[in-house]
Every structure is written in structure tokens, then in C-alpha cells.
Amino acid sequence: MDFGKLLLKIVGIAKDAAQDYVENSQKEARPAQQARPAQSHAAPVVEREKTDAEWNAYFKEILLSEFPTYTIRENVKVTDLVGFVADECQLYKTRPTQAYKAEWGQPYTFVLENGGKAIGVVMLGKGHSHDSGVKYLIARMYAKKLGVPYINFYTQMPNEREYVIGRIRKLLN
Q1: Given CB 3.0 to 4.6 Å as the disulfide criterion, which of 21, 39, 81, 138 pairs with 105?
Q2: 3-class DSSP string for 3-28
Q3: Model-wide pTM > 0.90
Q4: What is the rounded CA–CA span in Å between residue 142 and residue 69?
């Protein structure tokens, strides 16, 4: 073997060794990656929306267990609270001649009472605009006229227990 071929062979071996050294150094310099957990092929759990009856039961249970000193009435007509009043309320400043009566109001979902006197109103409704409907506005207006605190919950929201309790306690204080 002549000297030129031997030199080329040595240079080739040195290049391979250098390449291996660089690759190993790069692997060691990289941060260790955790293996991904095996992916489950189970269908994701989709939480279904509660029905109106389920929401009412959920709120009733919270009211009964967390506010036991109050009497809880459900689905209370506005007139049951204010009576058949002769006055009519005006809801919109832009429509001064349009008046509304208490009997047209949305029934209160829950009324908390103490000693036969209304202490607070809890209303449930779907959608962010449910509380801008005329029936809700009438109900809120008459609660305000009576001086009864009024609170509204949107049933498309999670309404976690502690959140509900906190808002109702704030309403009653």
C-alpha cells in the first residue's frame, strides 16, 4: 500500500471519529426529554348541560343547607310578594308612556324569607341577555321597590358551589 492511500484511510477514520464525538456531545448537551404518557383512546368526558329542573334542585340544595335560618320559597309570582298594586312601573326612559304591571313580571326563582318577610331574591336564567327581558326587568323593578335585594345567576355558567354561596352571603349582608 502506498503512502497516499494510507494517509487517506487515516484521515477518513479521523473524520468518522470526530463526527461521532460531535454527535455524542450534542446528545449529551440536550436536556433530557420525558417520555410522553401513552395516549388513551377513550372518548373525552363531555359535561352535559344541566336542565332547568337540575339547576333549581342544585340551588335549592345550596340554599337549604347553607342558609338554614331562612325559609325558601320557589317560583314566587311577583304579585305574591308585592300584591296586586295599582301602580305601574316605567322601565324605559325612551318610552315614557309605556308602563308595566307587577302581574306581568317573571316569577322569582327563589325568595328567602325570615319571619314571613322577604329578605332576598335569587333568580336563575339562561343566556347573558335573559335578564334584560321585560319580565325579568319588571320582577327586578318590584323587588327594588320593596327594598328586597335581588341577585341573578346565569345557568350557562359553572356556578360552582363556593361562588354561589359567596354571592348569596354578600347579597344578604
Answers
A1: 138
A2: HHHHHHHHHHHHHHHHHHHHHHHHHH
A3: no
A4: 24
